[in-house]
Amino acid sequence: MVSEIFAISTAWSRSLIEFADGLAPWAQTAAVWGTDLFLGVFAILFLMAWWRSRSVNSRLVGLALFAPVATVIAYGASLTLKSFFEQLRPCQAMTDLNTIATCDPIGDWSFPSNHAAIAGAAAAAVIVAWRRFAVAAILFAVLEAFSRVLVGAHFPHDVTVGLLVGAAVATLVSLLAARPMTALVDKLAEVDLLRPLLRAEPAVRGPEIEQIREDSHSRV
């Protein structure tokens, strides 16, 4: 079963690498840059989740502030897993192909994908903090994973496992941190200098903001 999955993953990877090799130079450059820049989108989503959550409650503020921490923890989990496997990257294993990104040296292993783990973790942390960003978060996580295969840095199974590991770890640690982070935000909000960073009047009052508050309290 594992060998069959790897064979399918390898075939898909080969097809995408060959496709990327035939792209116009500007498209190749965009793909190489995009594989790192996509991760920067999550920093923007973190900031937006924090900014909007200030008008809802301390729990969401705490979750938004914890999102980068959850992502780092998930990245650490991915690194730990990677140390148990010594799988070559596509660009290392299929030397007959030209990849559009510079190939990492032997020893920088492929499974799981750290980039995908970061993307999956960041997306999950954003969704836990502000679920209305779910579509954007999932979209950019998938784009990040796809880009890693396109540039020849990872196989499809690398990025799939990376996304799942990142999302699972980030969700778990975020939910575990929800209560202490809520208490911390409440405590810090007592400081006049910090209160504007943690509290804000809702821009829109009524059923919409009340629904968001109810949703946040209904989570585990």
Give keywords.
0% strand, 220 residues, elongated, mainly alpha
Structural description of this entry:
- The protein is mainly α and 220 residues long.
- The chain has a single domain, classed as Vanadium-containing Chloroperoxidase, domain 1, CATH 1.20.144.
- It has 9 helices and no strands.
- The radius of gyration is 20 Å and the shape is elongated.
- The relative contact order is 0.18.
Radius of gyration: 20 Å
Low-confidence parts = none
**CATH fold name, please?**
Vanadium-containing Chloroperoxidase, domain 1
Question: How many structural domains does the protein architecture include?
Answer: 1
Shape: elongated
Q: What's the overall average pLDDT, rounded?
A: 86
H-E string: HHHHHHHHH
**Count of alpha and pi helical runs:** 9
Say how many strands there are: 0
EC number: 3.6.1.27
Domain Phosphatidic acid phosphatase type 2/haloperoxidase: 61-174
Subcellular location: Cell membrane
Protein name: Undecaprenyl-diphosphatase
How do you describe this structure in short?
73% of the residues lie in helices and 0% in strands. The chain is mainly α and 220 residues long. The protein has one domain: Vanadium-containing Chloroperoxidase, domain 1 (Up-down Bundle).
Q: What is this structure's SSE topology?
A:
Elements: H1 2-21, H2 25-53, H3 58-82, H4 90-93, H5 114-129, H6 134-150, H7 156-188, H8 195-198, H9 207-218
GO molecular function, one term: undecaprenyl-diphosphatase activity
Subcellular location: Cell membrane
EC number: 3.6.1.27
